[in-house]
Specification:
Blueprint (H helix, E strand, L loop, with lengths): L16 H16 L4 H11 L4 H13 L3 H17 L4 H14 L3 H14 L4 H13 L3 H10 L10 H14 L3 H14 L4 H13 L3 H9 L11 H15 L3 H12 L7 H16 L7 H10 L8 H13 L3 H16 L4 H21 L3 H11 L10 H17 L3 H14 L6 H16 L9
Length: 454
Protein backbone atom coordinates (compact mmCIF):
# COMPACT_ATOMS: atom_id res chain seq x y z
CA UNK A 1 0.00 0.00 0.00
CA UNK A 2 1.42 3.39 -1.04
CA UNK A 3 1.81 6.54 0.98
CA UNK A 4 -1.24 8.76 1.54
CA UNK A 5 -1.64 11.77 -0.74
CA UNK A 6 -2.59 15.38 -0.07
CA UNK A 7 -5.01 17.74 -1.79
CA UNK A 8 -2.66 18.06 -4.76
CA UNK A 9 -2.21 14.33 -5.18
CA UNK A 10 1.35 14.46 -3.82
CA UNK A 11 2.60 11.70 -1.55
CA UNK A 12 2.85 12.86 2.05
CA UNK A 13 4.76 11.46 5.01
CA UNK A 14 1.69 12.05 7.17
CA UNK A 15 0.15 8.80 8.27
CA UNK A 16 -2.74 10.10 10.39
CA UNK A 17 -5.93 10.74 8.40
CA UNK A 18 -6.91 13.68 10.60
CA UNK A 19 -3.49 15.29 10.08
CA UNK A 20 -3.86 14.89 6.31
CA UNK A 21 -7.27 16.56 6.55
CA UNK A 22 -5.89 19.48 8.53
CA UNK A 23 -2.97 19.81 6.12
CA UNK A 24 -5.33 19.88 3.16
CA UNK A 25 -7.23 22.62 4.97
CA UNK A 26 -3.98 24.55 5.33
CA UNK A 27 -3.17 24.24 1.64
CA UNK A 28 -6.69 25.17 0.57
CA UNK A 29 -6.69 28.07 3.01
CA UNK A 30 -3.45 29.45 1.63
CA UNK A 31 -4.68 29.11 -1.95
CA UNK A 32 -7.91 30.96 -1.15
CA UNK A 33 -6.46 33.55 1.29
CA UNK A 34 -8.75 32.15 3.97
CA UNK A 35 -8.84 33.49 7.50
CA UNK A 36 -8.93 29.84 8.64
CA UNK A 37 -5.40 29.03 7.39
CA UNK A 38 -3.52 29.57 10.69
CA UNK A 39 -6.06 27.43 12.55
CA UNK A 40 -5.69 24.60 10.05
CA UNK A 41 -1.89 24.78 10.23
CA UNK A 42 -1.93 24.73 14.04
CA UNK A 43 -4.24 21.70 13.96
CA UNK A 44 -1.86 19.96 11.55
CA UNK A 45 1.08 20.47 13.89
CA UNK A 46 -0.96 19.38 16.89
CA UNK A 47 -1.80 16.14 15.09
CA UNK A 48 1.68 15.67 13.61
CA UNK A 49 4.29 17.67 15.58
CA UNK A 50 7.14 16.02 13.63
CA UNK A 51 5.80 17.01 10.19
CA UNK A 52 8.74 19.03 8.87
CA UNK A 53 6.89 20.41 5.85
CA UNK A 54 4.28 22.06 8.07
CA UNK A 55 6.99 23.67 10.21
CA UNK A 56 8.69 24.94 7.04
CA UNK A 57 5.40 26.26 5.70
CA UNK A 58 4.83 28.10 8.98
CA UNK A 59 8.25 29.73 8.62
CA UNK A 60 7.61 30.73 5.02
CA UNK A 61 4.19 32.15 5.95
CA UNK A 62 5.86 34.22 8.69
CA UNK A 63 8.39 35.67 6.26
CA UNK A 64 5.67 36.58 3.79
CA UNK A 65 4.16 38.82 6.49
CA UNK A 66 7.18 41.17 6.38
CA UNK A 67 7.59 41.89 10.10
CA UNK A 68 10.90 41.86 11.98
CA UNK A 69 9.55 39.95 14.97
CA UNK A 70 8.21 37.21 12.69
CA UNK A 71 11.69 36.55 11.34
CA UNK A 72 12.48 35.14 14.78
CA UNK A 73 9.37 32.97 14.54
CA UNK A 74 10.53 31.77 11.12
CA UNK A 75 13.91 30.81 12.57
CA UNK A 76 12.12 28.86 15.30
CA UNK A 77 10.12 27.10 12.58
CA UNK A 78 13.31 26.21 10.72
CA UNK A 79 14.84 24.74 13.87
CA UNK A 80 11.68 22.71 14.44
CA UNK A 81 11.69 21.47 10.84
CA UNK A 82 15.35 20.48 11.04
CA UNK A 83 14.82 18.74 14.36
CA UNK A 84 11.85 16.82 12.95
CA UNK A 85 13.89 15.59 9.98
CA UNK A 86 12.43 12.84 7.84
CA UNK A 87 9.75 13.50 5.27
CA UNK A 88 9.79 12.90 1.55
CA UNK A 89 12.35 14.47 -0.74
CA UNK A 90 9.67 16.90 -1.94
CA UNK A 91 8.77 17.90 1.61
CA UNK A 92 12.42 18.53 2.53
CA UNK A 93 12.73 21.08 -0.28
CA UNK A 94 10.37 23.33 1.69
CA UNK A 95 12.90 23.29 4.53
CA UNK A 96 15.67 24.18 2.05
CA UNK A 97 13.57 27.09 0.76
CA UNK A 98 13.01 28.45 4.26
CA UNK A 99 16.72 28.16 5.04
CA UNK A 100 17.63 30.08 1.86
CA UNK A 101 15.23 32.92 2.63
CA UNK A 102 16.46 33.25 6.21
CA UNK A 103 20.01 33.46 4.83
CA UNK A 104 18.92 36.61 2.98
CA UNK A 105 18.02 35.18 -0.41
CA UNK A 106 14.27 34.94 -1.03
CA UNK A 107 14.91 34.49 -4.75
CA UNK A 108 16.79 31.28 -3.93
CA UNK A 109 13.83 30.12 -1.89
CA UNK A 110 11.59 30.71 -4.90
CA UNK A 111 14.08 28.94 -7.17
CA UNK A 112 14.17 25.91 -4.86
CA UNK A 113 10.37 25.66 -5.03
CA UNK A 114 10.44 26.15 -8.81
CA UNK A 115 12.89 23.27 -9.05
CA UNK A 116 10.48 21.23 -6.95
CA UNK A 117 7.71 22.03 -9.44
CA UNK A 118 9.78 20.70 -12.33
CA UNK A 119 9.51 17.27 -10.71
CA UNK A 120 6.17 17.64 -8.89
CA UNK A 121 4.25 20.24 -10.95
CA UNK A 122 1.00 19.28 -9.24
CA UNK A 123 2.16 20.65 -5.85
CA UNK A 124 -0.29 23.55 -5.50
CA UNK A 125 1.22 24.84 -2.26
CA UNK A 126 4.63 25.21 -3.93
CA UNK A 127 2.93 26.85 -6.91
CA UNK A 128 1.25 29.47 -4.72
CA UNK A 129 4.38 30.04 -2.59
CA UNK A 130 6.44 30.76 -5.71
CA UNK A 131 3.81 33.32 -6.74
CA UNK A 132 3.86 34.91 -3.29
CA UNK A 133 7.65 35.17 -3.01
CA UNK A 134 8.17 36.42 -6.56
CA UNK A 135 5.40 38.97 -5.95
CA UNK A 136 7.34 40.36 -2.97
CA UNK A 137 10.38 40.61 -5.24
CA UNK A 138 8.47 42.40 -8.01
CA UNK A 139 9.07 39.66 -10.59
CA UNK A 140 5.87 39.13 -12.61
CA UNK A 141 7.81 37.62 -15.51
CA UNK A 142 9.15 34.89 -13.24
CA UNK A 143 5.68 34.41 -11.77
CA UNK A 144 4.16 33.90 -15.19
CA UNK A 145 6.94 31.61 -16.45
CA UNK A 146 6.66 29.39 -13.39
CA UNK A 147 2.93 28.95 -13.93
CA UNK A 148 3.08 28.35 -17.64
CA UNK A 149 5.78 25.71 -17.18
CA UNK A 150 3.39 23.59 -15.10
CA UNK A 151 0.14 24.35 -16.96
CA UNK A 152 -0.49 20.74 -18.18
CA UNK A 153 -0.56 19.48 -14.60
CA UNK A 154 -3.53 21.75 -13.79
CA UNK A 155 -5.87 20.73 -16.60
CA UNK A 156 -7.86 18.49 -14.23
CA UNK A 157 -6.28 19.48 -10.94
CA UNK A 158 -8.28 20.10 -7.75
CA UNK A 159 -6.65 23.56 -7.62
CA UNK A 160 -7.12 24.37 -11.31
CA UNK A 161 -9.21 27.44 -10.55
CA UNK A 162 -6.50 28.86 -8.33
CA UNK A 163 -3.91 28.25 -11.04
CA UNK A 164 -6.05 30.24 -13.49
CA UNK A 165 -6.45 33.04 -10.94
CA UNK A 166 -2.68 33.23 -10.44
CA UNK A 167 -2.13 33.12 -14.19
CA UNK A 168 -4.64 35.94 -14.68
CA UNK A 169 -2.71 38.16 -12.31
CA UNK A 170 0.61 37.49 -14.04
CA UNK A 171 -0.94 38.18 -17.43
CA UNK A 172 -2.25 41.51 -16.14
CA UNK A 173 1.09 42.46 -14.59
CA UNK A 174 2.86 41.65 -17.88
CA UNK A 175 0.43 43.76 -19.90
CA UNK A 176 -1.88 41.17 -21.49
CA UNK A 177 -5.13 42.59 -20.20
CA UNK A 178 -7.64 40.79 -22.43
CA UNK A 179 -6.07 37.39 -21.72
CA UNK A 180 -5.92 38.22 -18.02
CA UNK A 181 -9.62 39.05 -17.93
CA UNK A 182 -10.54 35.78 -19.65
CA UNK A 183 -8.26 33.74 -17.36
CA UNK A 184 -9.71 35.33 -14.22
CA UNK A 185 -13.27 34.53 -15.27
CA UNK A 186 -12.23 30.97 -16.11
CA UNK A 187 -10.73 30.55 -12.65
CA UNK A 188 -13.79 31.94 -10.87
CA UNK A 189 -16.06 29.63 -12.86
CA UNK A 190 -14.07 26.66 -11.55
CA UNK A 191 -13.37 27.92 -8.02
CA UNK A 192 -15.87 30.35 -6.56
CA UNK A 193 -13.67 31.35 -3.59
CA UNK A 194 -10.67 32.37 -5.70
CA UNK A 195 -10.07 35.78 -4.15
CA UNK A 196 -6.75 36.21 -5.99
CA UNK A 197 -8.39 35.65 -9.36
CA UNK A 198 -11.14 38.15 -8.55
CA UNK A 199 -8.45 40.58 -7.43
CA UNK A 200 -6.68 40.04 -10.78
CA UNK A 201 -9.83 41.33 -12.47
CA UNK A 202 -9.76 44.40 -10.23
CA UNK A 203 -6.26 45.08 -11.55
CA UNK A 204 -7.44 44.66 -15.14
CA UNK A 205 -10.21 47.19 -14.62
CA UNK A 206 -7.71 49.59 -13.05
CA UNK A 207 -5.13 49.26 -15.79
CA UNK A 208 -7.70 49.58 -18.60
CA UNK A 209 -9.50 52.59 -17.07
CA UNK A 210 -12.84 50.82 -16.60
CA UNK A 211 -13.51 51.94 -13.07
CA UNK A 212 -17.28 52.27 -13.47
CA UNK A 213 -17.65 48.65 -14.58
CA UNK A 214 -15.19 47.50 -11.93
CA UNK A 215 -17.04 49.08 -9.02
CA UNK A 216 -20.34 47.47 -9.97
CA UNK A 217 -18.87 44.04 -10.75
CA UNK A 218 -16.64 43.71 -7.70
CA UNK A 219 -19.39 44.62 -5.27
CA UNK A 220 -21.56 41.78 -6.62
CA UNK A 221 -18.83 39.17 -6.07
CA UNK A 222 -18.37 39.19 -2.31
CA UNK A 223 -18.71 35.37 -2.20
CA UNK A 224 -15.24 35.18 -3.72
CA UNK A 225 -13.62 37.17 -0.91
CA UNK A 226 -15.96 37.28 2.07
CA UNK A 227 -14.10 34.32 3.61
CA UNK A 228 -10.72 36.04 3.39
CA UNK A 229 -8.20 37.10 5.96
CA UNK A 230 -7.09 40.72 5.73
CA UNK A 231 -6.93 40.30 1.96
CA UNK A 232 -10.57 41.39 1.93
CA UNK A 233 -9.47 44.89 2.96
CA UNK A 234 -7.32 44.96 -0.15
CA UNK A 235 -10.30 44.16 -2.39
CA UNK A 236 -12.24 47.01 -0.79
CA UNK A 237 -9.16 49.18 -1.42
CA UNK A 238 -9.43 48.38 -5.13
CA UNK A 239 -13.07 49.45 -5.12
CA UNK A 240 -12.12 52.68 -3.34
CA UNK A 241 -9.43 53.37 -5.98
CA UNK A 242 -12.07 53.06 -8.66
CA UNK A 243 -14.21 55.63 -6.85
CA UNK A 244 -11.18 57.96 -6.75
CA UNK A 245 -10.68 57.49 -10.48
CA UNK A 246 -14.30 58.44 -11.06
CA UNK A 247 -13.95 61.51 -8.82
CA UNK A 248 -16.32 60.12 -6.19
CA UNK A 249 -14.09 60.95 -3.24
CA UNK A 250 -16.80 60.73 -0.59
CA UNK A 251 -17.47 57.12 -1.54
CA UNK A 252 -13.76 56.32 -1.29
CA UNK A 253 -13.54 57.87 2.19
CA UNK A 254 -16.66 56.01 3.29
CA UNK A 255 -15.04 52.71 2.29
CA UNK A 256 -11.85 53.72 4.07
CA UNK A 257 -13.78 54.11 7.30
CA UNK A 258 -16.24 51.23 6.98
CA UNK A 259 -14.04 48.53 5.43
CA UNK A 260 -10.40 49.33 4.65
CA UNK A 261 -9.40 50.62 8.11
CA UNK A 262 -12.39 49.57 10.17
CA UNK A 263 -10.29 47.06 12.14
CA UNK A 264 -7.19 49.27 12.45
CA UNK A 265 -4.77 46.37 12.04
CA UNK A 266 -0.99 46.85 11.95
CA UNK A 267 -0.21 44.47 9.06
CA UNK A 268 2.00 46.36 6.59
CA UNK A 269 -0.30 45.41 3.72
CA UNK A 270 -3.24 47.01 5.52
CA UNK A 271 -1.19 50.10 6.31
CA UNK A 272 -0.19 50.33 2.65
CA UNK A 273 -3.85 50.16 1.61
CA UNK A 274 -4.71 53.05 3.91
CA UNK A 275 -1.66 55.21 3.27
CA UNK A 276 -1.77 54.92 -0.49
CA UNK A 277 -5.49 55.68 -0.61
CA UNK A 278 -5.17 58.78 1.60
CA UNK A 279 -2.18 59.94 -0.48
CA UNK A 280 -4.19 59.62 -3.70
CA UNK A 281 -7.06 61.56 -2.17
CA UNK A 282 -4.80 64.36 -0.95
CA UNK A 283 -3.24 64.59 -4.40
CA UNK A 284 -6.74 65.29 -5.67
CA UNK A 285 -7.17 68.06 -3.11
CA UNK A 286 -9.37 66.12 -0.69
CA UNK A 287 -9.20 66.94 3.03
CA UNK A 288 -8.92 63.52 4.68
CA UNK A 289 -9.34 64.91 8.19
CA UNK A 290 -7.61 63.17 11.12
CA UNK A 291 -7.30 59.79 9.40
CA UNK A 292 -3.51 59.97 9.08
CA UNK A 293 -3.07 60.00 12.85
CA UNK A 294 -4.01 56.36 13.34
CA UNK A 295 -1.69 55.18 10.55
CA UNK A 296 1.17 57.38 11.78
CA UNK A 297 0.91 56.06 15.33
CA UNK A 298 1.24 52.47 14.12
CA UNK A 299 4.00 53.32 11.65
CA UNK A 300 6.08 55.01 14.35
CA UNK A 301 6.44 51.59 15.95
CA UNK A 302 7.75 50.14 12.68
CA UNK A 303 10.55 52.66 12.08
CA UNK A 304 13.23 50.08 12.94
CA UNK A 305 11.56 47.21 11.12
CA UNK A 306 13.42 47.15 7.81
CA UNK A 307 12.00 43.91 6.41
CA UNK A 308 10.72 45.27 3.10
CA UNK A 309 11.35 48.51 1.22
CA UNK A 310 7.72 48.37 0.04
CA UNK A 311 6.52 48.37 3.65
CA UNK A 312 8.96 51.07 4.76
CA UNK A 313 7.90 53.47 2.02
CA UNK A 314 4.26 53.11 3.04
CA UNK A 315 5.19 53.65 6.68
CA UNK A 316 6.91 56.83 5.50
CA UNK A 317 3.75 57.98 3.73
CA UNK A 318 1.88 57.48 6.99
CA UNK A 319 4.49 59.35 9.03
CA UNK A 320 4.45 62.20 6.51
CA UNK A 321 0.67 62.39 6.63
CA UNK A 322 0.75 62.42 10.42
CA UNK A 323 3.46 65.13 10.49
CA UNK A 324 5.95 62.85 12.30
CA UNK A 325 9.05 64.55 10.89
CA UNK A 326 11.30 63.14 13.60
CA UNK A 327 10.17 59.59 12.87
CA UNK A 328 10.68 60.20 9.14
CA UNK A 329 14.28 61.23 9.81
CA UNK A 330 14.84 58.17 12.01
CA UNK A 331 13.45 55.90 9.35
CA UNK A 332 15.66 57.47 6.69
CA UNK A 333 18.72 57.01 8.92
CA UNK A 334 17.83 53.37 9.53
CA UNK A 335 17.22 52.76 5.82
CA UNK A 336 20.64 54.25 5.04
CA UNK A 337 22.17 52.00 7.69
CA UNK A 338 20.50 48.94 6.18
CA UNK A 339 21.63 49.93 2.70
CA UNK A 340 25.26 50.11 3.86
CA UNK A 341 25.27 46.57 5.22
CA UNK A 342 26.81 43.85 3.12
CA UNK A 343 24.41 41.02 2.76
CA UNK A 344 21.60 39.60 0.74
CA UNK A 345 18.94 40.84 -1.60
CA UNK A 346 17.09 43.05 0.87
CA UNK A 347 20.09 45.33 1.44
CA UNK A 348 20.56 45.78 -2.31
CA UNK A 349 16.95 46.96 -2.71
CA UNK A 350 17.39 49.42 0.15
CA UNK A 351 20.42 50.82 -1.68
CA UNK A 352 18.56 51.13 -4.95
CA UNK A 353 15.82 52.28 -5.24
CA UNK A 354 14.85 52.44 -1.55
CA UNK A 355 16.95 55.36 -0.38
CA UNK A 356 16.24 57.59 -3.37
CA UNK A 357 12.52 56.97 -3.06
CA UNK A 358 12.53 57.65 0.69
CA UNK A 359 14.54 60.86 0.29
CA UNK A 360 12.13 61.95 -2.41
CA UNK A 361 9.16 61.37 -0.13
CA UNK A 362 10.78 63.34 2.69
CA UNK A 363 11.49 66.26 0.35
CA UNK A 364 7.92 66.12 -0.96
CA UNK A 365 6.53 66.33 2.57
CA UNK A 366 8.71 69.36 3.24
CA UNK A 367 7.62 71.13 0.04
CA UNK A 368 11.05 70.80 -1.60
CA UNK A 369 9.59 69.70 -4.90
CA UNK A 370 12.71 70.02 -7.05
CA UNK A 371 14.59 67.68 -4.72
CA UNK A 372 11.57 65.41 -4.39
CA UNK A 373 11.31 65.07 -8.15
CA UNK A 374 15.03 64.47 -8.61
CA UNK A 375 15.05 61.66 -6.04
CA UNK A 376 11.78 60.05 -7.05
CA UNK A 377 12.74 60.17 -10.72
CA UNK A 378 16.08 58.52 -9.88
CA UNK A 379 14.20 55.71 -8.12
CA UNK A 380 11.68 55.15 -10.94
CA UNK A 381 13.66 52.70 -13.13
CA UNK A 382 14.06 50.25 -10.24
CA UNK A 383 10.78 50.65 -8.35
CA UNK A 384 9.54 47.29 -9.68
CA UNK A 385 12.07 45.62 -7.36
CA UNK A 386 10.31 46.82 -4.20
CA UNK A 387 7.56 44.33 -5.02
CA UNK A 388 3.84 44.68 -5.05
CA UNK A 389 1.72 45.36 -8.13
CA UNK A 390 1.55 48.13 -10.69
CA UNK A 391 -1.55 49.42 -8.92
CA UNK A 392 0.17 49.48 -5.53
CA UNK A 393 3.34 51.17 -6.79
CA UNK A 394 1.29 53.71 -8.72
CA UNK A 395 1.05 55.93 -5.65
CA UNK A 396 4.80 56.58 -5.98
CA UNK A 397 4.39 57.24 -9.70
CA UNK A 398 1.68 59.77 -8.93
CA UNK A 399 3.82 61.48 -6.29
CA UNK A 400 6.68 61.69 -8.79
CA UNK A 401 4.36 63.38 -11.26
CA UNK A 402 3.02 65.69 -8.55
CA UNK A 403 6.54 66.68 -7.54
CA UNK A 404 7.27 67.50 -11.19
CA UNK A 405 4.10 69.57 -11.51
CA UNK A 406 4.64 71.47 -8.28
CA UNK A 407 8.31 72.00 -9.11
CA UNK A 408 7.43 73.47 -12.50
CA UNK A 409 8.73 70.56 -14.61
CA UNK A 410 5.64 70.35 -16.80
CA UNK A 411 7.25 68.62 -19.76
CA UNK A 412 8.80 65.98 -17.52
CA UNK A 413 5.41 65.39 -15.90
CA UNK A 414 3.86 64.97 -19.34
CA UNK A 415 6.51 62.41 -20.30
CA UNK A 416 5.85 60.31 -17.21
CA UNK A 417 2.10 60.56 -17.75
CA UNK A 418 2.58 59.31 -21.30
CA UNK A 419 4.76 56.41 -20.13
CA UNK A 420 2.21 55.52 -17.48
CA UNK A 421 -0.61 55.56 -20.02
CA UNK A 422 1.35 53.39 -22.46
CA UNK A 423 1.96 50.82 -19.72
CA UNK A 424 -1.81 50.77 -19.21
CA UNK A 425 -2.50 49.77 -22.79
CA UNK A 426 -3.12 53.35 -23.88
CA UNK A 427 -6.15 53.83 -21.63
CA UNK A 428 -6.50 57.29 -20.08
CA UNK A 429 -7.79 57.08 -16.53
CA UNK A 430 -9.29 59.87 -14.44
CA UNK A 431 -5.98 60.75 -12.82
CA UNK A 432 -4.22 61.24 -16.16
CA UNK A 433 -7.07 63.30 -17.58
CA UNK A 434 -7.10 65.58 -14.54
CA UNK A 435 -3.33 66.04 -14.61
CA UNK A 436 -3.36 66.97 -18.29
CA UNK A 437 -6.05 69.55 -17.57
CA UNK A 438 -3.85 71.02 -14.83
CA UNK A 439 -0.86 71.22 -17.16
CA UNK A 440 -2.96 72.87 -19.85
CA UNK A 441 -4.28 75.43 -17.36
CA UNK A 442 -0.80 76.13 -15.98
CA UNK A 443 0.60 76.76 -19.44
CA UNK A 444 -2.31 78.94 -20.44
CA UNK A 445 -2.14 81.04 -17.29
CA UNK A 446 1.66 80.88 -17.02
CA UNK A 447 1.58 80.10 -13.33
CA UNK A 448 2.90 77.15 -11.25
CA UNK A 449 0.68 74.12 -10.95
CA UNK A 450 1.45 74.10 -7.22
CA UNK A 451 -0.91 77.04 -6.78
CA UNK A 452 -3.83 74.93 -7.96
CA UNK A 453 -3.01 72.09 -5.58
CA UNK A 454 -3.61 71.71 -1.83
Amino acid sequence: MGMPTDLSGCETSLSCASAVGHWNGTVHGFLSHSAATPTALAATLDAAPDFAQAHAARGLFCLLLGRAELEDAARDALRAAEAAGGGTKRERIYVDALRAWLAGYPSRAASALEDLLHRWPEDALAMKLVQSIRFLLGQPGHMRAALEAIAPAYADHAAAGYWHGCHAFTLEETGEYARAEAAAHRGLEQTSDDAWGLHALAHVYDMTARAEIGVVWLQTQTAAWGHCNNFRYHVWWHIALMHVDLGDYDAALALYDSEIRADRTDDYRDISNGASLLSRLEIEGVDVGPRWEELAKISEHRVEDGCLVFADLHYMLSLMGGARSGAVRRMLARMAETAEKPGGEREAIFRRPGLSAARGLEAYAEGRYASAFANLRAARPDMQTIGGSHAQRDVFERLTIEAALRGGYLSAAEEILAERQKRRGGAEDGYTARRRDLISTARRDARPVALTMP
